[in-house]
Amino acid sequence: MNTAEEIKQLVREKYGEIAEQSKEMNAASCCGAGGCSTVDYTIMSEDYSATDGYVAEADLGLGCGIPTEFAQIKKGDVVLDLGSGAGNDAFVARALVGSKGKVIGVDMTEPMIDKARINNDILGFNNVEFRLGEIEKLPVGGGIIDVVISNCVLNLVPDKKKAFTEMYRVIKPGGHFSVSDIVLKGNLPEGIRTAAEMYAGCVSGAIELDEYLSIIKDAGFVNVSVPKDRAIRIPDDILLNYLSADEIAEFNASGNQITSVTVYGEKPADGNMPKKALAEEACCGDGCCS
């Protein structure tokens, strides 16, 4: 079992490699340095080409939804994009907030931050910025964000409870989030769950949908809903790298699913954090919690 820091380092390395490739190279090579023995990261992505603010150079095909579709972003809003990559969703959000709003992207992979900043320099936006940092410890002040968005990133975070608690901290009272992510319905075969390449490809870090929604609600969010739900079908020729033919047949017949969801939730207008989340937030010292 990899530790949280080992998982983060794995994700940094894989997405650092991807940052150096174009979307076309990712699709052609199954996104791995070693060719098609690795996962096709673009298999879960959706088509942004008709979306206002879309910048093709910033789209590496790494998402699993279009979170801005349900984010209710308004002119003048301050939007935070978690795991902003090369800037794809941040630039779409910028088209929605307009010149009087602001978009902040946070990513823990330096090559992605560099790529996003280069894209932003070309576009000349003075109200979009990209910060290096981790979702579990956001480099953002508390209560200043109107809308949080994220695309196929939160399932890669080892401590999802901390991630959603941080989201709650930075969102203004009455603000909200819209995140697209990969979740599970039923059990995922161990061969997929433990495969490092599949982890970096947004599958093995996924948890059950009910658990995912429970974490969100425990963090204090209300009016939580799932406005979009789409089954992900991974081709058998990819699965054969991790499972036997019999295991694949059993998985396909089980009714279990890898699912892309977009989840929406709101921070109450009073901004109060529930007692459970407050207790977990306070319990941070050495030896305090097991």
Can you tell me the CATH superfamily?
Vaccinia Virus protein VP39
| Strand numbers in spatial order across the main sheet | 3-2-1-4-5-7-6
Which geometry do the CA atoms define? Answer: globular
Rg, please? 18 Å
- Strand count: 7
CATH class: Alpha Beta
Number of helices: 11
Category from helices, strands and their pairing = alpha/beta
CATH-defined topology: Rossmann fold
The helix-strand sequence is HHEHEHEEHEHHHEHHEH
Ends apart, CA distance between termini: 17 Å
Query: pLDDT under 50 segments (min length 5)?
Result: 28-38, 284-290
Helical proportion? 25-40%
Q: Which architecture would the CATH scheme give at its second level?
A: 3-Layer(aba) Sandwich
Largest sheet: 7 strands, mixed
- In what range is the share of β-strand residues? 15-25%
Mean pLDDT: 83
Provide the domain count.
1
Overview of the molecule:
By secondary structure, the chain is α/β, with parallel strands linked by helices. The chain has a single domain (4-270), classed as Rossmann fold, CATH 3.40.50. It is 34% helix and 20% strand. It has 11 helices and 7 strands. It has helices at 4-19, 23-29, 88-97, 110-123, 160-170, 190-193, 196-200, 209-218, 236-239, 245-254, 275-282; strands spanning 78-82, 102-107, 128-132, 145-151, 171-185, 222-232, 257-266. Strands 3-2-1-4-5-7-6 form a 7-stranded mixed β-sheet. α5 (160-170) links the parallel β4 and β5 (171-185). α1 (4-19) crosses α4 (110-123) and α5 (160-170) packs across α8. The two termini are 17 Å apart.
